[in-house]
Structures are given as C-alpha cells and as structure tokens.
Write a structure and sequence with these properties.
heterodimer; A: mainly beta; Hemocyanin, Chain: A, domain 2; five-stranded antiparallel beta sheet; about 5% helix; B: mainly alpha; di-copper center containing domain from catechol oxidase; two-stranded parallel ribbon; 8 helices
Amino acid sequence: MDRFVSEPIHNPAHDEEAFQRADLVFYGVDHSGPSFEARVYFNQNAIDVSTPRDADTFAGSFTVFGHVGCTGDAGHCDVPTNPRDPFDRRPPHHLTPQTKTVIVTAALRRISDAELTISVIAIRPGPEVAEMVDALYFERFTLLTYS
Amino acid sequence: MSTGAVSPQQPVVPLRHRLNIDAMTAEQLAAFGEAMTAAMGISDERGYNYQAGIHGLPLPISCGIAHGQPIFLPWHRAYLYFFELTLRDLQSEISLPWWDWTTQAAIPDAYSEAQVGGQPNPLYSAEVDPIALAQGARAGDVKAPRTVRFPGQPGSPPLPTAADVEKVLALPGFLDFTHQLEQLHNNVHVWVGGDNGHMGDIPFAAFDPIFWAHHTMIDRVWRIWQLRHPSASVPAALLDEALPPFAMTVAQTLDANTLGYDYAVQSVGGPAGG
C-alpha cells in the first residue's frame, strides 16, 4: 500500500480518560524492502512529507530497517505459509513479518473526538524528502489502552 | 564494576571498559584505529569484511533472526563480543567505543575525518566485500564499493534524545524495553545512512565502521537498563535459545561482566609510583 488512512474507529480516550498508556500496534509489518520511517497521525487524513512531526495530530512513528530486496536464489525470500512442524527447531524465516508498537499515550490524550482515524505515511530521507511508494505493508492494527 | 569472573572456578580479573568515543585519549583512539586497520587488511574469518558480513551480506551467513525479534539485544551483544575479541587479537588493549547520539547529534569527529596523520582513517570508511556488493546488486541494492554516509538528510527520523532514552529505560518489562530500544536503533541507522548509505539498510550496515559504535551504545543502554531493573530479565523461554552463528545462548549474554567488560565514560591512569 502507499499512504494508509483507516476507517474511523472508536476513540477510547473519548470515554476512558484514566488510561495510563496507549499503544498503537501494527501487526504483520513487511520489512523485505528498503528502510523507511512510517509517520502516524491521528485525525488528519490529508498528510504528506511536509506534515510536521510536531503537529498536534502527530501520534508517533516506527522505522522499518529493511532488507532491500531478495539477495538469494529463487524462493529464498518466500516466507513459509504452511503450519510449522512442531519438531522444527530452526529459527523463523528472516522475512517473517514484524510487529511494531508505537506508544501513543500523549497523542491520544490530545484527541477528544468520539472517533479516530489513523493515517500513516512512509518516508525515506534523501536530498529531498520522498514519500515511499509501494513500501508500507501491514496486516492490521490495534489501538490498546491500559489503566 | 571493575572486576568479573567467568565462573566460580576462575579467578576474578579486571574488566575492560568500553569508553565514550569522545572521551578516549589520543593513545586509546590510535590503538583502536590500528586494530581496525589491521582487521581491514585480513581477508579470512579474522578480518573486518568477514565480521561485517555476518550482519547481512554476503550470504549464506546473515543475521536473519536478529531484528524485530526478542533476541535483538542478546544477538548483537554476542556480535560485539566476538568482534571485539577479534580486534583484541590484533591490539590487545583496545575496547569498543560507543557513540552517544543523545549528547552528540552528529557523526563523532573520530569518524568524520577522511584521513588521520596523513593516512586513511579506518573509522571514516571501509571497503565492502565485493561478493556482498554483487549479491546486493542482484536484488537492485546497488551500493558504493566503500562505505558512505548521508547523515541527517531531509526526511530522516530524528536521532534519539536523552529524554527518549530515559522513557525507554523506564519500561520495566524486557520485551517492551527491547522493542522500543530497537526502534530508536532503527532511527539511528536510517539517520546515518540517509539515501543509500550503507548504514541505512540491513545487508550492508555493519560494513560502516560507525555501526560498531552505534551498537555499542545500544548495548550500553541495555546494560544501564539491567542495572536499573535488577529483577527484570529476558523471558525464561528465550534463555536457552542459540544465537547463530555465534556459539552462545541468550543466557550467556546477560551478564556483561562475565563477558569481561563494562561501560565507563573515561578511563585514565598510570603506573604506580615509588
């Protein structure tokens, strides 16, 4: 995917002001390509590379430290999808998708709206800031609050 | 700590101390540079290219399980430990320095000068294994034959601040701590590497000499966390996990003092008088 904008979700901060910590967890994050920073914003769908990190809507970021493509032979970078043999003691495949947890406690406390959208943009540094195209992939996200 | 022991059967011996790169004496820095230069001239498993290649390219050895996994810190502690030993075989008095990016948000001077004393500075750049370059190019990752950096380019994630590190150090659980520390670590890699610098991507990162100073800082933060949270540890289920290609388990990495080192800002001294 390119830029990600979620459907509106319920904002737990709207009715749960007492939470001590909030985590935005991205599951199944792909790291097979180049490195990039994924910047996350709350309730700001129109974002681009110039949207500041110090904006009130900035929730945090995670950085993918990437493998930059497949350097092996055919099949080397195919993550096995079959159920794992219980006697298989080998380490997991090197491109097994990762989980990224962004601590968003302070950012979530700034949002009082009943609904929340989550926007993510992938950025790679360079002489000129560039939005990464076709680099950001994850399977799902969850917003967790803890009392 | 100033002493350590591998086991109760072994004598207590002085530890070596890893130092802040900016606090090293000229002699300490020169000795470290000599060791790096010597390692860069060796083409077998004692050499720099072999050690750097463990992290990514050339295949088939790689650090496939060392990132985004709960053994991120133990794996890299083992990596530093074996790399430091190979350097100490070449220059017995050296220890790995760390780059404290929380106090110096720039490449340290020791790593910034292309030449030192009229000679190429081994901390500035390193030659990359040609086999690694060829394997990377096959995947479209074309890199320069010597390591380059593009620190702090527009769009870079910020270097971690002291406040960022303090927040991570305050996390009481190991898995939470390592996950958040790895994120700070990723930011530094991308900040240094920028657009196609070697530090910015896994396959070539360890060829850049500053990789080791960055990871020594990461290891130091883990050491500080261990001291602040003495009752917290790696989950028991991970302790017996191996850390390939190193002949070491997670449990064997937990105590830096049994690996013969600790961290100090400076180390100065002299012979006894009399």
